[in-house]
Every structure is written in C-alpha cells, then in structure tokens.
Design brief:
Low-confidence stretches: none
Number of helices: 2
Distance between the termini: 145 Å
Radius of gyration: 50 Å
Strand content: under 5%
Oligomer: single chain
Structural class: mainly alpha
Mean pLDDT: 89
Shape: rod-shaped
C-alpha cells in the first residue's frame, strides 16, 4: 500500500499534479469522496502548520530554558563568590578586633609602666633633693 502510494505520488509529481488539481468525478459518491479528500487535505495542512508552530515554540522555549539555566549557574557562582567574600571580611574583622584588643592591652600596660616610671622619677627627684640638702 505504501509503495503504491509512493509510486502514485511520483507519477503525479512527474506530470506536475499538486493538491490544487481535482480528479474528475463521475458520480455523486465520487464527488462526496473528493470533497472529503479535500477536507482532509485542508485539515492536514492546518495540522502541519500547527505542528510547525508548536515545534518553533518548543525550540524557542528550549533555547530560553538553556539561557535561564546558564543564567542560574552564573548567578549561583556569583552568590558563592559573594559568600566567600563575606566570610573573608568576617575573618579579617575578627583579626582586626583581636589586634585592637591586643593594642588596648599594650596601651594599658604602657600607661601602667608610665605611672610606675613617674613614681620612680618622683622618688629619685625627692632623693636627689634630700641628698642635695644634706650636702649643703
């Protein structure tokens, strides 16, 4: 059946017969069949057009989905990089806070040393004054 149809189509193609030509009909039954064939050909053309439209839409949606996935991947990479950046900033902040604490302790120690040195200086000055008084 399929081979016969291919051969018939090949013969019709050779004589430049296309869907627009109608086969001569001899009776009402044949006319009805011819009308049904034309109706089915129009339906097929409409369905083929819809199929092409759907295929084009599917292709466009597939490309859009690929672009969305690519964008999602890029956004996730940027988000992970930002998280790492924030982690680094937090780490550096902790280091700075520890250093600040250490420096505050150092300043306090130096201020205490300064108080002790001032006290020793006063004691020494007092001793020098007393010894000078004794000498005179």
């Amino acid at each position: 059946r399929c081979d016969a149809q291919k051969m018939a189509n090949a013969v019709l193609c050779e004589i430049n017969w296309d869907d627009g030509f109608a086969i001569p009909v001899s009776n009402t039954e044949n006319k009805s069949m011819e009308d049904e064939v034309q109706k089915k050909q129009k339906e097929k053309a409409n369905i083929d057009s819809q199929l092409t439209s759907f295929e084009d839409r599917i292709q466009a949606m597939t490309m859009h989905l690929q672009n969305v996935r690519r964008e999602l991947t890029n956004t996730q990479i940027l988000q992970r990089a930002r998280e790492k950046e924030l982690e680094t900033e937090q780490h550096l902040k902790k280091i700075a806070e520890h250093e600040m604490q250490r420096l505050k302790q150092e300043i306090q120690r130096l201020e205490n040393d300064l108080v002790l040195l001032r006290e020793r200086k006063n004691i020494m000055e007092n001793n020098i004054y007393r010894y000078t008084q004794q000498i005179e």
